[in-house]
Amino acid sequence: MGRPVTELQHTTGIARHGRLKRSHAATGLLRVVALGLAVILVGGAAIAAFALWQFSRTVAANSIDIDIDDADVAPPPGIGSYESGFNILIVGVDNDSAQGAAYGVRETTLNDVNILVHVSADHANAVVVSIPRDLVVAHPECTDATTGEVYRELGAAPVNEAMGRGGLPCVVTTVEELTGLDIPYAGLASFAGVVRLSDAVGGVPVCLSEPVDDPKAGLSLPAGTSIVSGATALAFLRSRHGVGDGSDLARISSQQLYLASLMRTVRGDGTFTDLPRLYALANAAASSISLSTSLAHTDTMVSMALALADIDLDRLVFVQYPGTTEDPDFPGKVVPLQGLADTMFAKIAADEPFSLTAAPPTDEPLVAGPPAESPEGPVKTDAAAPPATPTPTPEALDGLTGRTADDETCAQVAND
């Protein structure tokens, strides 16, 4: 029998969304993996073909033999053919049996990291939503595929209990009902997997406003920018008492800073054009992240990656699911700010970009006016051509916490 789950009876304000129109998504790490495969495929050499074959075997061996959301999604017919948006849920667990007791022993496996990535159908923007582990949500009925045990619905309980109520499929279903989005793809990562991935990428720059020393996480870094990898990268991602206000929400901010820096790093250091590095990174990811059967297809990942190749960093938004820690009925937990959450997910479902802050004022006209005169006189234009229309400014959603991928702001160190 599975571990009993404590049901919290208070349900006011914990709304369950209806699912919205199917849309799909991807993550930065999977993007790097798939782009590596794309380069391998177009290389055409015998060694590249062997590398692809070996990578495919790694993916197949490390995939999770489950279907999520009745996911009968067939892989695209060919590379580059993925023409819609997509959603992927990446789940980080804190008690993977394969990694032993290196990071502590717990009674059950918890989905402490839940990152939902949505890419718009036109591939012009992407949103990465971090769901706090202590967010109080409605839980659907779930069945453990291993034991057959059925877990009843819960009106309100922390989201990180979903893994213990039926594994990754239950986590996916819980997040689907919370967000209203269909999630046909998912991956499962452990602490040990994060270490291998950070080593494979060669380290990621992280910036701190002051020195940090967090013995509980094993983290000691100077002020300024440090390149972190391996166990140090994991310590930075796990630290609660060294960065921000010492809460789990501050840890989400560190994770967003790390992922944003990762995206800037792999774009700026030539990773996408370096075949040996791409191959090493692809294999590290394939052996570190367990993929749902719906995602464990080479063509699917490559096509997703190619769709993401040119997305602007300022249109890649990392955001925390809006919530409050001030609800007296749930001390120490995070309760959704339902109105703001509904607004955000309505925009995500409609592929409408949004920003975290209002755009600075500008004197530029909303619609292009007549061309300016040059020293040689007025510039001639085609009278039949319509006036240029500028790209609309994304609406700012006040109250959201996060950053964009081009934001290089340093992390604020916690005050003792």
From TrEMBL:
Residues 111-266 form the Cell envelope-related transcriptional attenuator domain. Pfam families: LytR_cpsA_psr. The chain crosses the membrane at residues 29-53. InterPro entries: LytR/CpsA/Psr_CW_biosynth (IPR050922), LytR_CpsA_psr (IPR004474). It comes from the Bacteria. Keywords: Membrane, Transmembrane, Transmembrane helix. Residues 356-416 are annotated as: Disordered. Belongs to the LytR/CpsA/Psr (LCP) family. This is LytR family transcriptional regulator.
